[in-house]
Structures are given as C-alpha cells and as structure tokens.
C-alpha cells in the first residue's frame, strides 16, 4: 500500500485535556511540542483505503532490536542512527530518505518511548540499549530551557521562581552528565556524534561538556542562512536568526557549515512571543516562537545527513586503501 503524507496525531495530556493535530509528516516540521509530556497515537493514511489498520501508539515501549548491519543495495554498509531527547525523528527521517547510503533507525531515546532520562533507571536502560545496538551516529539534543540566558534573568529575581529554576537545572545537569558519558563512549569506539544547542546556552559552560568540546569539532552557524537551514517565520517569511552550536565528529560538516552565518538580513523575526504554522486544511495554529525555532528544518537535516554520509564514504575509502597497502606489504616484503 502507498503511504500518504497526511497523518492525524491524538495527544492526551496529564491534566486530562486532549487535542488532535493534522500535518504532512514527510514534508513539514512535525506539529509536536517537544516539552509537553503526552501520550496518544498517530494514524497514518494510506492511498485509497482510509487509514492503516495498525496505529503508532505513543506509550512507553520496549526498544526493539534493529536490523543487523549488512551491505545495502548500493554496496555501502547499512548505517545505524539514534536520536536522544528528540522523538520527532526529523534527522532519522532524512537519513532513511537518503538514496546514497542505506540507513536503519533505532528507537529514539526519549520519554515517549519509556526512557525517562531524568531518572537513574531511565538513564541506565538507555545506556544498556546503546551498548547493545552500537549506533554509527548518535544525534543528541538535550533541553536548553533550564540553562538559557532568560533563566539567568529569572534566577536574579529570587524567590520561588529562582528556586524552581535551580532545582530544574540540578535535575537536567544529571542528564547532561549522562549524555557526555555517551559521547565519550561513542568517541572511544570511533563512532560518530552530533550534539546541538543554541550557541549561548549555559549547558556549554557545564563541566560535563568541556571534554566533548575539546575533543570534537565545534561549529557555529546561523539557522536563518539559506544554505544551512533556511529558518523562516511561516506567516511572514521573515528569517529567524538563531545562532546554533554543533559539537560533532565530522570534519566534512565543519567545513560546510562553519561559514554559514547570517548573510545580512535586515528584518529578522526575533525568537519571542508566538507565531503561527499552517495546517494541511489551510487553517493556522498558534505556537510559541521558541518552540518553532527549536524544530529542525528538513533542509538542515538533509545537510547534516549528507555531511556524515560523505564522512562515512571517506572512511571506507581510507580503510580500503589501507587494506590494499597492507596486502602489498605482505607480498613484497623481502624474506629474512
């Protein structure tokens, strides 16, 4: 059956409220608020037959073992990707849509899949899962809000608000510490890694993130740059200037992104207040601009995946060259 672009997502929130969202899941940014704790189901539509008989339920599930690594139809080894703290799977979708290197997707490590990374049990379960599956690429997008510049202002006001923010930072610092350990594990086994946060996010100043910043590439660019992500305000088309920092293992990515700053837009849309996104039925839905700006654009995801694919190709070519050189040494070295 041919899977159509339209899907319906039912969201059920802890306070008993619920809502339905309709979006074009292949081509649009998913209409999901990543900071809301929710449960529900997604119904994918199939050409000529209403809906699929099997729905995708967003309840905690046991991670399923993915396809074993093997050689794909193009002769390239199948690569395995996993996303941490992001269940929208925008990066994974871009990888699976690739026509150059075959990919397989792991279950995302997020609370929607049963991994509560703010608990010791959730972190241990996630770590066991990573050790079992051994992904080729880890993409991590931990929560910025507890460490944002605005929260520094709120802490300065003192009182109960300050206490709540500091408590939240303490909880999320444990999560960042855990992510840093996964980055080290991935680096030590020569796997690839990508971590993303706004350039001025306070999490980059935490002790836990210093090693990854010393050992990896650190690439700063502007999401409004058309060659990078092309982030724009949907109702007005005005570019949204969001300077982002990538911590990663790809020299190819650094070379491609390091100069992609704002080209000089004179009328930026600031990340404040609310904006609107257009639904498939033509209506508009209001959301926080900060939430929208935190979503990855399809162009950004394609560019990231393409950079890592080039990295994989270069590594494979270097390995083949080294193997041939070693073979020559075996047959040309003089006898003792």
Notes on the protein architecture:
There is one protein chain. By secondary structure, the protein is an alpha/beta fold. 34% of the residues lie in helices and 21% in strands. The protein contains 8 helices and 12 strands. It has helices at residues 90-96, 120-133, 149-156, 159-188, 210-215, 251-257, 289-294, 298-332, and strands spanning 3-12, 18-24, 39-46, 56-57, 79-84, 103-105, 137-140, 192-198, 217-222, 243-248, 274-278, 284-288. Strands 6-5-7-8-10-9 form a 6-stranded mixed β-sheet, sandwiched between helices. A hairpin with a 5-residue loop joins strand 11 and strand 12 (284-288). Helix 6 crosses helix 8. The radius of gyration is 22 Å and the shape is globular. The chain starts with a strand and ends with a helix. 32% of the residues are buried. Mean pLDDT is 80; it is low at 29-39 and 49-69.
| Count of helix runs | 8
- The tally of beta strands, per DSSP, is 12
What structural class do the secondary elements suggest?
alpha/beta
* CA-atom Rg in angstroms: 22 Å
Arithmetic mean pLDDT? 80
Shape: globular
N→C terminal distance? 66 Å
Give the helix level as a range of percent: 25-40%
**Beta content:** 15-25%
Order of helices and strands: EEEEEHEHEHHEHEEHEEHH
Oligomer: single chain
Major sheet: arrangement of strands: 6-5-7-8-10-9
Low-confidence stretches: 29-39, 49-69
Largest sheet, strands/sense/barrel: 6 strands, mixed
Write the layout of secondary structure elements.
Elements: E1 3-12, E2 18-24, E3 39-46, E4 56-57, E5 79-84, H1 90-96, E6 103-105, H2 120-133, E7 137-140, H3 149-156, H4 159-188, E8 192-198, H5 210-215, E9 217-222, E10 243-248, H6 251-257, E11 274-278, E12 284-288, H7 289-294, H8 298-332
Parallel strand pairs: 5-6, 5-7, 7-8
Antiparallel strand pairs: 1-2, 1-3, 3-4, 8-10, 9-10, 11-12
Helix pairs in contact: 1-8, 3-4, 6-8
